[in-house]
## 1
Amino acid sequence: MFLQRLNPSVKAVTIIVFIIFLAMIFEPVTPLLFLMWTIFVTFIFGKVDVKKYLLYFAPFIIFALGMFWTSIVFADTPNHPDDAIRFFGIDFPKESVLTALALTLRILNVAALSLLFVFTTNTVHFILSMMQQLKLPPKIAYGVLAGYRFLPMLKDELKLIHDAHRIRGVNQARTVKEKWQNYKRYVIPLLASAIRKAERTAMAMESKGFTGDKHRSFYRQFKIQKQDFIFPVLMLFGFMFSYLIAIQIG
């Protein structure tokens, strides 16, 4: 799909820029329309599973609704009835409600933009692109990649330790306290295994000539091409259209 083929660094910078733009908007119309545009771009130009997307987006919706309710509940009492909006039989200041709505939609926009990047970007390609386009030091980049690769390995290692304890007849935890005691028992062997893997990784990198030099060659080359500028233009069009509609509405 189109979004998967874009340069990850250009995509990341574009998303950060529009998050900054949204932070300067204090009315709800622009964030609402831009949220709809972002979700539209994600599903039309990116191969994203709807159920998985909704599963990740749901916690942000709950958090945003909590933010909205908290903001209007603790708002000041309206001085004039004409400047009030009624919710559940209670009058709230119109300005406070619009500000709360703008903050809520801003949270949902940040979530939508973040999910667009996460679901359409390969993590390894993103790190390599940051080294080549954004000049991220290789020591930091490969350290992040190594940590990213270790996470599923640590999960498997934890399962092996758990199975080893079961074979040796260790009582299975039933209460929260017993589970906590079990995890404390797993920490030492898990840490020892992680240290051994880290040492092997460091030795392998040194044996292959890794020095952390910025001027190095790459097997996978990432370049900024003409198609990479389509995404910023596409998002800018959606943002400007939303902003103009908000001006027309007043």
## 2
Amino acid sequence: MKISKQFPVNALRVFEAVARHLSFTKAGEELGLTQTAVSYQIKLLEDLLGESLFLRRPRRITLTDAGARLAPKVSEAFELLSAAISDMRSTSEGTLTINATATFASHWLARHLGIFQLDNPRIAVRLETTQEIIDFNKTEADVAIRVGQGQWPGLRAHFLMRNHFTPMLSPKLAESIGGVREPLDLLKLRIIDPGDRWWRIWFTAAGYPDAELDLYPRSKMGAQALEAAAAVAGHGVAILRPEFYQDDVAMGRLIQPFELTCEDGSHYWLVYPEARRHAAKIRAFRAFLTKTLPSFEERAPLE
């Protein structure tokens, strides 16, 4: 099909929004259109293509097979256009906005971002932290650091580092019970967030699948960095990624009483929209990770 002045760009934009929300009403609210206008644009596109794109059912709609094939391609096309316009508007390489968990941000990124900025003086860096999985369509973030299995639809994912865990506590807290010599000694102390499934995984691997974690009062701090701070203060035993806290161990603020570490299949990944993979600032960030993080995989999985 030859793109001309009659090419239905508006109709495709409306289609993309409706396909994403599976709602004419929500798409209209996002685009500032009435439901009648949304319906008209979808009908215009369907007539042009000669295909029904949505199945209209009472109180809900679903994509037809044709609509399901078209939706991801249209979404990527608009993302590419947005990226191209963004790059053209910038007089320099702009600002790289990184979204990361508080723990990764404070214990790895903050210590290494200076290297990135020295290598890329024309790129400003803005670091934001959240424990929630962000929607790239609703945020200014260019890249994100996520914990998971590396599979998110529409996103390119690069492996950063394995995520394993083990109990850690302050030496003074361990001394308060005459030392921690076996796993069950930990249960003599306050367990920070006993509802965290990491605890059950670790005790099971240590040979105590029936450890009575349910007897402890529930507490949830929302970030590993906060749990580590509580452990340093002597307020309990936290289950942490030991590599992030080697400085605390070296300075005598924390100890790792057991060599046993465990994993739950979720690791750290760099992610960003597939359509943004060629953006200069994202390429620069990947090069920085290749330089500073030996475990980083420049090639995306299945690439």
